[in-house]
Amino acid sequence: MRIATYNVEWFHTLFDDAGGLLHDDAWSARRDVSRAMQIDALGVVFRALDADAILVVEAPDCSRGRDGVAALRNFAHAAGIRARAVCMGFQNDTQQELMLLYDPDVVQAAHAPSDLGAPGFETEFRIDLDIDATEDVVRFSKPPLEVALETPIGPLHLIGVHVKSKAPHGARDDDHAMRLAIANRRKQLAQCIWLRARVEAHLEAGTPLIVAGDLNDGPGLDEYEALFGRSGLEIVMGSGAAAGRLFDPHGARALQSRLSAMPTTARFFLRHEGRYLQALLDYIMVSPDLRTKARRWHIWHPFDDPACWGDAALRDALLTASDHFPVSLDLG
Q1: 295: closest CA among 328, 265, 264, 326?
Q2: What sign results for the dihedral spanned by CA atoms 268, 270, 271, 273?
Q3: Who contacts 242 (Cβ-Cβ below 8 Å, separation ≥6)?
C-alpha cells in the first residue's frame, strides 16, 4: 500500500464556498498560475501518486461557511483518483486544514483524537521554554490530525501534522524580524515537544505509528537553531534506543551530515533575491515495527528524481501545482 503527504499551496482558493471547483482563467494565489492551470496540474500529480491514502496539508478550509470536505471530494472526483473519501480532524480558522484522502476500497479511516501521553491537540500545552520558571502556553493553530487506519498490512495510527512556520512574516525591520523568528522557533519547537510526547506514548503502547506532514523544519534551516540546541525534526524523530525512534531516510540523511547535499521537498521563490530556495520540510516517519515493512520512500521532486524529470507532463505539473512536492511511502 502507498501512503503520501502533499502540501498543496493555496488549495482553498480553487473552490467556491460550497466546495465547487473554480476551473477558470482567473489567477490562482500562485505566481503566474491560473486556477484552471493549478487544478489541472494537481490532477496530474494526484493521479501519478496513485496513493491509497494521502495526507493533504493546507487542504481546503471549512471555516467561514465553507465546506472543505465537499471541496476535497469534488476535486478527487474531477481528478479521477481512487482516494476519494475524506477524513478530517479538528477544524481550524487558518484556511488551511489537515485532511486525509483515502481509497475506501483499500483502507478505512476514522478520526481518533486522544490525550495519550500529552493533552489533546485541540487544547493547550504548558511548558517552560526558556527556563525562566514561567510556563508558556502553547496551542496548535492547526491541530494535528490523528487517524486510526485499517489497512491491508494491519491496523496503524497516523498523525498528520503542519507545525508552526518559523518565517518572520510581517516583520517591520531587521530587529523585529529577529524577534519574530526567535519567537516562532520557540513555538515551533514547543509544538514538536508536544507531538513527541504523543509519539512516545504510542511507541510505549506498541502502536504501529506513522507521523507525516510538514514540520516546517529540518537541521540547519535557520541561524537561530543553535540557540535551542536541536531542530524540531530531531525532537519528533527521537534519540536514544532504536525502539524509541521514528525513522525517515531523508531526515536521517540530513541529520547525519549538514555539510553534504540533502534531499529537498519544497522550492520557494525569494523575490528580494531573485532566486529559489529549496528545503527539506515534509516527512513520513515510521515506528520501528513499520520500518521492517517499508519498501520505498520517494520525494516526487521534478529536478532530483529521474522518473519525474523524464515525464514532461508530470514535471511541469509538479512545478505548477504547489511550492512543495509530494512524499510517498510504499508499505508491504
Answers
A1: 328
A2: negative
A3: 288
Distance in angstroms (rounded) separating the CA atoms of residues 330 and 294 = 6
Q: Which three cell numbers stand for residue 11?
A: 488549495
pLDDT digit string (tens) for 58-105?
999 998 789 999 999 999 999 999 999 999 999 998 999 999 999 999
Domain ranges in the chain are 2-331
**pTM score of the predicted model:** 0.93
Rounded to 10 degrees, what is the CA torsion of 42, 44, 48, 49?
10
Residues in the chain: 332
**Residue 203 per-residue DSSP state:** H
* pLDDT tens string 141-157: 999 999 999 999 999 99
246-256 pLDDT, tens digit per residue, is 999 999 998 88
Helix boundaries (H) for the chain: 35-49, 68-79, 174-204, 225-228, 232-237, 249-256, 288-291, 306-310, 312-321
Architecture, CATH, for domain 2-331:
4-Layer Sandwich (3.60)
Dig out the grid coordinates for 114 from the structure: 486522544
